[in-house]
Design a protein that fits this description.
The protein is mainly α. It folds into 2 domains: 1-19 and 27-91, Serine Threonine Protein Phosphatase 5, Tetratricopeptide repeat, CATH 1.25.40.20; 106-183, Alpha Horseshoe (Serine Threonine Protein Phosphatase 5, Tetratricopeptide repeat), CATH 1.25.40. The protein has helices at residues 2-17, 34-41, 44-51, 68-74, 78-85, 105-112, 115-122, 139-145, 149-156, 173-181; strands spanning 95-98, 101-104. A two-stranded antiparallel sheet has the order 1-2. Helix 2 (34-41) runs parallel beside helix 4 (68-74), helix 5 runs parallel beside helix 7 (115-122) and helix 8 (139-145) packs parallel to helix 10 (173-181).
Protein backbone atom coordinates (compact mmCIF):
# COMPACT_ATOMS: atom_id res chain seq x y z
CA UNK A 1 0.00 0.00 0.00
CA UNK A 2 2.73 2.46 1.00
CA UNK A 3 4.78 1.90 -2.19
CA UNK A 4 1.68 2.42 -4.34
CA UNK A 5 0.88 5.65 -2.49
CA UNK A 6 4.47 6.85 -2.90
CA UNK A 7 4.37 6.07 -6.63
CA UNK A 8 1.11 8.00 -6.92
CA UNK A 9 2.68 10.98 -5.13
CA UNK A 10 5.82 10.77 -7.29
CA UNK A 11 3.81 10.77 -10.54
CA UNK A 12 3.43 14.59 -10.73
CA UNK A 13 7.16 15.03 -10.11
CA UNK A 14 7.94 12.58 -12.92
CA UNK A 15 5.72 14.40 -15.39
CA UNK A 16 7.09 17.82 -14.39
CA UNK A 17 10.74 16.70 -14.62
CA UNK A 18 10.52 16.17 -18.39
CA UNK A 19 9.86 19.86 -19.04
CA UNK A 20 12.99 21.48 -20.48
CA UNK A 21 12.28 24.95 -19.12
CA UNK A 22 11.85 23.68 -15.57
CA UNK A 23 14.55 24.91 -13.18
CA UNK A 24 15.03 22.11 -10.63
CA UNK A 25 17.23 24.41 -8.55
CA UNK A 26 14.55 27.04 -7.88
CA UNK A 27 14.46 27.96 -4.21
CA UNK A 28 11.39 28.91 -2.19
CA UNK A 29 11.31 31.64 0.47
CA UNK A 30 13.22 29.32 2.85
CA UNK A 31 15.82 28.83 0.10
CA UNK A 32 14.82 25.19 -0.23
CA UNK A 33 14.90 23.37 -3.55
CA UNK A 34 12.77 20.39 -4.53
CA UNK A 35 15.79 18.23 -3.62
CA UNK A 36 15.78 19.69 -0.08
CA UNK A 37 12.07 18.94 0.31
CA UNK A 38 12.32 15.38 -1.03
CA UNK A 39 15.42 14.61 1.06
CA UNK A 40 13.89 16.06 4.23
CA UNK A 41 10.77 13.94 3.83
CA UNK A 42 12.54 10.74 2.76
CA UNK A 43 11.09 10.54 -0.77
CA UNK A 44 13.79 8.32 -2.26
CA UNK A 45 12.12 7.88 -5.65
CA UNK A 46 11.77 11.65 -6.13
CA UNK A 47 15.35 12.25 -4.94
CA UNK A 48 16.66 9.72 -7.48
CA UNK A 49 14.52 11.33 -10.17
CA UNK A 50 15.91 14.79 -9.39
CA UNK A 51 19.49 13.50 -9.24
CA UNK A 52 19.16 12.25 -12.83
CA UNK A 53 18.56 15.84 -13.96
CA UNK A 54 21.86 17.09 -15.45
CA UNK A 55 21.49 20.63 -14.06
CA UNK A 56 20.81 19.57 -10.45
CA UNK A 57 22.90 21.36 -7.83
CA UNK A 58 23.25 18.94 -4.92
CA UNK A 59 25.20 21.16 -2.51
CA UNK A 60 22.82 24.14 -2.31
CA UNK A 61 22.23 25.49 1.20
CA UNK A 62 18.77 26.35 2.43
CA UNK A 63 18.01 29.27 4.76
CA UNK A 64 19.32 27.31 7.74
CA UNK A 65 22.50 26.60 5.74
CA UNK A 66 21.77 22.90 5.29
CA UNK A 67 22.14 20.83 2.14
CA UNK A 68 19.85 18.00 1.05
CA UNK A 69 22.40 15.57 2.50
CA UNK A 70 22.23 17.23 5.94
CA UNK A 71 18.43 16.96 5.95
CA UNK A 72 18.46 13.30 4.92
CA UNK A 73 21.07 12.47 7.57
CA UNK A 74 19.23 14.40 10.31
CA UNK A 75 16.04 12.50 9.59
CA UNK A 76 17.70 9.09 9.25
CA UNK A 77 16.64 8.51 5.64
CA UNK A 78 19.27 5.89 4.80
CA UNK A 79 18.13 5.24 1.21
CA UNK A 80 18.04 8.96 0.43
CA UNK A 81 21.53 9.40 1.94
CA UNK A 82 22.73 6.52 -0.23
CA UNK A 83 21.23 8.10 -3.35
CA UNK A 84 22.78 11.49 -2.59
CA UNK A 85 26.19 9.93 -1.91
CA UNK A 86 25.97 8.29 -5.33
CA UNK A 87 25.87 11.65 -7.09
CA UNK A 88 29.31 12.65 -8.42
CA UNK A 89 28.94 16.29 -7.32
CA UNK A 90 28.12 15.65 -3.66
CA UNK A 91 30.32 17.37 -1.07
CA UNK A 92 30.18 15.03 1.90
CA UNK A 93 32.28 17.33 4.08
CA UNK A 94 30.20 20.47 3.55
CA UNK A 95 29.60 22.15 6.88
CA UNK A 96 26.39 23.68 8.12
CA UNK A 97 26.81 27.29 9.13
CA UNK A 98 24.00 28.40 11.41
CA UNK A 99 24.63 31.13 13.98
CA UNK A 100 28.22 30.18 14.69
CA UNK A 101 27.51 26.45 14.71
CA UNK A 102 29.22 24.47 11.99
CA UNK A 103 28.41 20.80 11.56
CA UNK A 104 29.07 18.41 8.67
CA UNK A 105 26.70 15.53 7.88
CA UNK A 106 29.01 13.12 9.73
CA UNK A 107 28.57 15.14 12.93
CA UNK A 108 24.78 15.06 12.55
CA UNK A 109 24.80 11.27 12.22
CA UNK A 110 27.05 10.93 15.27
CA UNK A 111 24.96 13.28 17.37
CA UNK A 112 21.72 11.46 16.58
CA UNK A 113 23.30 8.02 17.04
CA UNK A 114 22.26 6.73 13.64
CA UNK A 115 24.76 3.92 13.03
CA UNK A 116 23.20 2.84 9.71
CA UNK A 117 23.57 6.30 8.20
CA UNK A 118 27.01 6.77 9.76
CA UNK A 119 28.20 3.50 8.18
CA UNK A 120 27.13 4.85 4.77
CA UNK A 121 28.96 8.13 5.33
CA UNK A 122 32.12 6.35 6.48
CA UNK A 123 32.13 4.27 3.30
CA UNK A 124 32.59 7.45 1.24
CA UNK A 125 36.29 7.71 0.26
CA UNK A 126 36.61 11.47 0.83
CA UNK A 127 35.02 11.55 4.28
CA UNK A 128 36.87 13.67 6.81
CA UNK A 129 36.25 11.59 9.92
CA UNK A 130 37.98 14.20 12.09
CA UNK A 131 35.88 17.16 10.96
CA UNK A 132 34.99 19.55 13.77
CA UNK A 133 32.19 21.89 14.70
CA UNK A 134 32.74 25.42 15.99
CA UNK A 135 33.50 24.09 19.47
CA UNK A 136 36.15 21.80 17.95
CA UNK A 137 34.10 18.70 18.79
CA UNK A 138 34.52 15.74 16.40
CA UNK A 139 32.06 12.99 15.53
CA UNK A 140 33.66 10.89 18.25
CA UNK A 141 33.05 13.68 20.80
CA UNK A 142 29.37 13.90 19.82
CA UNK A 143 28.75 10.15 19.95
CA UNK A 144 30.65 9.74 23.24
CA UNK A 145 28.87 12.68 24.88
CA UNK A 146 25.49 11.09 24.17
CA UNK A 147 26.46 7.49 24.96
CA UNK A 148 25.89 6.18 21.42
CA UNK A 149 28.03 3.05 21.86
CA UNK A 150 27.46 1.49 18.39
CA UNK A 151 28.40 4.80 16.75
CA UNK A 152 31.47 5.18 18.97
CA UNK A 153 32.55 1.66 18.00
CA UNK A 154 32.11 2.37 14.29
CA UNK A 155 34.21 5.52 14.61
CA UNK A 156 36.92 3.78 16.65
CA UNK A 157 37.17 1.08 13.96
CA UNK A 158 37.78 3.74 11.30
CA UNK A 159 41.52 3.83 10.47
CA UNK A 160 41.97 7.62 10.24
CA UNK A 161 40.14 8.55 13.46
CA UNK A 162 42.02 10.81 15.86
CA UNK A 163 41.01 9.38 19.25
CA UNK A 164 42.97 12.05 21.10
CA UNK A 165 41.43 15.09 19.39
CA UNK A 166 40.79 17.87 21.89
CA UNK A 167 37.94 20.35 21.64
CA UNK A 168 38.20 24.03 22.51
CA UNK A 169 38.14 23.38 26.27
CA UNK A 170 40.66 20.54 26.01
CA UNK A 171 38.27 17.60 26.38
CA UNK A 172 38.76 14.42 24.35
CA UNK A 173 36.03 11.93 23.47
CA UNK A 174 37.20 9.88 26.45
CA UNK A 175 36.36 12.76 28.79
CA UNK A 176 32.83 12.82 27.38
CA UNK A 177 32.47 9.03 27.55
CA UNK A 178 33.40 9.05 31.25
CA UNK A 179 30.99 11.91 31.96
CA UNK A 180 28.18 10.12 30.06
CA UNK A 181 28.81 6.87 31.95
CA UNK A 182 28.61 8.72 35.28
CA UNK A 183 25.05 9.92 34.59
Amino acid sequence: MYRRTLRYRAAPAKSIRGRRELDVNTQNMNKETALHAASDRGHEEIVRLLLRTPAIEVNVWNERKKTALHLAVENGHKQVVSALLGHPGININAGVNWIMYRRAALLHASKTGNARVLRLLLSFPDINVNTRDNYKDTALHHASKRGHVPVVQLLLDFPRIDVNARNEIGDTALHYAVKAAAK
